[in-house]
Amino acid sequence: MMSDTTTAHSPAVPIAPKRINWFMPHRVIMMLIAAGLVILAATTMRWDWIPQYQNQLLVGIGRTLALLFSSVIVGLLLAIPLGLAQVTGPKPLGWLAASFCGIIRGTPLLLQLWLLYYGLGSILAANPDFRKEYPEIFYYIRQAWPYGFLALMLSFAAYEGEVMRGAFKGVPRGELEAAKSYGMGPWTMFRRIWLPRALHRALPTLTGDTVLQLKSTPLVATITVVDAYGVISKVRQATYLTYEPLLLLALIYMILTGIMVVAFRYFENMVPSKR
Fold it and tell me: Tens digit of pLDDT for each residue in 59-91?
């Protein structure tokens, strides 16, 4: 009986994170294979074109990252009210949010991109009155990157709107009731309890969706936005090389993906969670 009482009142011991053993046989074999492929590619393939295109590659990577982070940040800001409207209502607003998410998620991103650029963009660019009345706005309408950003942002907002809907629903009602009993108003409760808990629940999914968003950015090259993929396409056309530019592009995306995953894991570990 004494032992049961002691165990019940003893403080919880924090569980140390499990360390990864990099010297397991399968991991060692995979690292050896990867090292062998790198050495083989470095010694048997042509890489003399990199110094000539390195500046363009850096600019293209910068455009890729700019499109990625801007579309993710703005898309997430739009996804929060989309998810909240489906949970709290009113019903007409919830139906509109659900319809938007359903339409965007149900159609290919490439189709949405082309409809915005070749459809809406062509209509606005061909309007002489719009060109005269709004020359500053017309300057950006003639460019391709705003349509790439808009398509990526709307797509991310629709997918994350559904994620946030589930995250908002998944927050225990007891926590919200406790906040009300402490005298918190609706906005204070949303800002301090509901939204942070929902974001914490959605963070693992947000990590994967951000990686998928990075892999979607090459589509903007189809509307003449010269991102990292667009630069590699130019390299292939100029040098008549096939594998080397594509292997370098794959390496670039793998490095960017690894950095993002490590950063998200860091933020996940910073958020306290119940064991």
Answer: 999 999 999 999 999 999 999 999 999 998 889
Q: Rounded to whole angstroms, what are the CA distances from 227 to 58, 123, 246? A: 9, 25, 14
> 254-264: buried (b, 16+ CB within 10 Å) or exposed (e) per residue?
eebeeebeeeb
On the 0-12 / 13-18 / 19+ scale of CB atoms within 10 A, 246 is middle
Maximum Cα–Cα distance across the chain? 88
Among residues 5, 52, 108, 87, which one has the least CA distance to residue 239? Answer: 52
Q: Which two tokens stand for residue 33?
A: 């294979």
Q: Could you give the C-alpha distances from 202 to 161, 246, 268, in angstroms and in order?
A: 11, 33, 10
What are the backbone dihedrals phi and psi of residue 122, each rounded to the nearest 5 degrees, phi first? Answer: -70, -40
pTM attached to this predicted model: 0.83
| Cβ neighbours of residue 64 closer than 8 Å, sequence gap 6 or more | 214, 217, 227, 228, 229, 256
